[in-house]
Write a structure and sequence with these properties.
The protein is 15% helix and 48% strand. The protein contains two helices and ten strands; from the N terminus they run αββαββββββββ. The strands form two sheets. It has an eight-stranded antiparallel beta sheet with strand order 5-6-7-8-9-1-2-10, covered by helices on one side. Strands 3-4 form a two-stranded antiparallel sheet. A hairpin with a 2-residue loop joins β1 and β2. The protein starts with 7 loop residues before the first helix and ends with a strand.
């Protein structure tokens, strides 16, 4: 990427976004999701089928309404039950001084105005396509820029009988800054 005309502050923000991208990509993909008919102690959330799931995770930096940079894209296929990860997503605990809001449900979307995790506060929208597909978008604000972490998940079949055959290697692409 040509840095001519880019301020030192903008370059630092871009570098910060790259560091954040590395942290996000190091985190595991969702391994499970909650149920609308959840047990009394579990938070409400969508229900998904256990099986072989394909995940595509993309990290973008939004510079302006018209300028977005894809920082990285990662794909992974593995055998999971999406219930446990969604339980963590739908919990409303505090992390440091950040307190998560409860999700608002409208049609097939769950929106958290403010959800806290290890990356800090984020606006999170989970869109349920079916019990075999969903997307989760997290938008993080950092000064003049925002980062969007988008995970698109789709169930592609049943799990293999042997756990060693249940996961395929991940493919990652990354754009240089």
């Amino acid at each position: 990427m040509n840095h001519h005309g880019t301020s030192p502050r903008a370059r630092r923000s871009i570098l910060g976004a790259c560091v954040a991208a590395a942290a996000i990509l190091a985190a595991p993909c969702p391994s499970s999701a909650g149920s609308d008919a959840a047990a009394p102690d579990s938070p409400p959330g969508p229900a998904f089928k256990r099986g072989m799931w394909h995940f595509v995770r993309t990290l973008e930096m939004v510079v302006s309404a018209n300028v977005r940079h894809t920082l990285s894209s990662q794909e992974m296929t593995r055998c999971v039950d999406p219930t446990e990860a969604m339980k963590a997503t739908f919990s409303t605990g505090s992390i440091g001084s950040c307190t998560s809001t409860k999700p608002e449900k409208a049609d097939n979307r769950y929106t958290f105005a403010n959800r806290c995790d290890y990356m800090g506060p984020a606006k999170t929208t989970i869109t349920v396509v079916s019990d075999a597909a969903y997307s989760e978008q997290n938008e993080f604000r950092a000064g003049d820029y925002s980062r969007i972490d988008l995970v698109v998940a789709k169930r592609i079949g049943d799990c293999a009988a042997e756990p060693s055959k249940a996961a395929r290697p991940m493919r990652t692409t990354s754009n240089e800054l």
